[in-house]
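Hello again,

I reread your note about wanting to compare the complex against the isolated chains. To keep things tidy I'm splitting this into two emails, and this first one only covers the full assembly. Below are the input lines as submitted, including protein chains and any nucleic acid or small-molecule components. They are followed by the predicted structure of everything together. The single-chain runs will come separately.
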Amino acid sequence: MVALVRPRMDAAAAATRDQTPNGGNPGIRVRDLTLRFGAQTVFENLSFEISGGEFVALLGSSGVGKSSLLKIIAGLADATAGSVIGTDGLPIPGRIAYMGQQDLLYPWLTVMQNVTLGARLRREPVDRPWAEHLLERVGLSTRQKALPAALSGGMRQRAAIARTLYERQPIVLMDEPFSALDAITRAMVQDLAAELLADRTVLLITHDPLEACRLGHHLMVLSGHPARLGEPFTVPGQPPRAPDDPAVLTSQGHLLRLLVEASR
Amino acid sequence: MTLIQAQDPASTPEDPETVAANEDVLATPSSRRPERWLRFVIPVVMLLLLLGVWQVYVTMANVPQYILPSPLRIAQALGTDWGILGSALLVTLKITLSALILALIGGVVLAVLMAQSRWIELALYPYAVILQVTPVVAIAPLILIYAPSTQVALLFCAWIVAFFPVLSNTTQGLKSTDHNLLNLFEMYRASRWQTLRYLQMPNALPYFLAGLRIAGGLALIAAVVAEFAAGSAGAGSGLAFRLLEAQFRLNIPRLFAALFLLSMTGVVIFLGTSLISHLLLRKWHESSIRREN
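Full-complex prediction:
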C-alpha cells in the first residue's frame, strides 16, 4: 500500500497529478464470482476486468445484485465462490475509497473533520493543505467549519467527494452516489467527479443510463436472475461527455431499452 | 441557529444559499418574539389563577387546615418547618443524584459490554429485565436485610429502577448505528475501539440522553418509594419519611410542603436533564435542529 501513495506534494502540484493516464493505478480483476443466499443465486460465475485508471459504469435494475457485488469487491462481504484481486496481483481491500448513496457524512463532525476522518482514524497527522485544496476544488472552502446539517444536499455530496479524494486511494467504488440529487446539481457534481477522478480506477454503480453514458469509459449491464453481465459497451468520446452529445443520447436510449427488456 | 456561515465574513453575498440563510436569520426572531413572550406569561397567569381560586375557596368556605390548607398556610409551613424539611430534602437529593450517577455509569458500561459481544448480551440481559420488571417495593425488604445501612439500601433501590432505561436506550443506540457508516469505518480499517469511540458512541448519544431524562425522574420516584418501603426514621430520613410522619400527625400543611418540595425536585431534575440534552445535541441532531420548512 505504501508504494502506491504518491509522494507528498504541495497543494498546487497535487492538482496537476503527475501520473500518466493509467498512472500505475491497479485495476480490478473479478474471476468466476458467485453469490448465493440459501437456494437463491444472486449471480454466478461473474468475470470481468477493469484496467487501471479506467472509469467503468455498472448498470442494472434494483435488486439485481449490484450493491452486493460492490461490497464483495470492497471486502465488506464474502462471495460464495470466486476471487477479486487487483490487476497487479495484490488484494484490493485497503486500497479503496468509497462513496455511497447517502453522503455518509458524520453529523457531529465539521466538513473539514469529515474530509480528514481517514487520517484521524489511522492516527496520521492531518494533511491540511491537501484537504483545503480539495475543499476549494469542490467549492466548499468557505464552509470548512460547517456541520453537515447546515449544508444543502449538493454541498454534502461535494463534501463526500472531497473526503473520497482525500484518501488518495487508487481505486474508487461508488454506489449510486448522485441518485439523491436534483438533475442540475447532479450534472454539476458528475462533471466535478469525472474531472477529479480522472486517473483513478473507478467502478460506478448506477441505474441512471444518462449518468453511465456521460461518465463511463466503458459500460456494463447486470441483469437477469441469476444476474449475468452483458457485453461491455463503449460510448465514443472522452468522459465527462456533454449531456446533449448525440452519442450520449443514442447510447442512453439504447441502454434504457436493454434495461427494460432485461427486467421483463 | 444551524446556519453558521451567516456570520462568516469569507462567505460571498452572491452565494444564493448564503443570501437565503441571511434572510432566514433576519426573519426568524421578529416573527417568533410574541410567541416566546406568551409562552412564559400564560403558564404563570394560569398558576396564579389556580392558587387564587384555591386560597379564596379555603378562606370563604372555612375549610379546616387539617383537611385542606390554603396556599399561604403551606408557604408558611415551608418557612417554619424548613429546618426539618430542608435537611430531609438534602437527604432525598443525595440519594436521588447518587443513584442517578451510578445508574448512568452502570447502564453505559453494561450497554458497551453488551454491544461488544452477543454472548455477554445473552448472558446478562435477562437479569437486567428481571431486576426491572420486579416491583422495587417487593425487593426493598430483602435489600434492607442485606444492605449495611438504610441509606445504602435506599440507594440500591433507586439504582435498580433508574439504571434500566439508561441500559436499554444506550444499547439500542449503540446497535442502531447506520450500517453504511459502519461499512465506511471498516473500509477505513478503524479498530473496534475507534468504531466504538468515534461512531457508535456519538450515534448512541441521543438515545442515551433520552434514557437519562427517564432515569432522572425514575431515580426520584424510586428514592421516595424505597423510603416508604424501608420506613427509615430519625435524623437521616428524607422527604418521603417526613411526608408520612406529617400525615400521622395530621400536620397537613407540612405534608403539602413536603410534597411541593418533591415535585419541585422532579421538575428541576427534568429541566436539568433536558438542558444537558439540548446543549449536547443542538448542533447536529434532528431532534434539536429547527426544521427549515
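For quick reference: DSSP finds nine helices and ten strands in chain A.

B.
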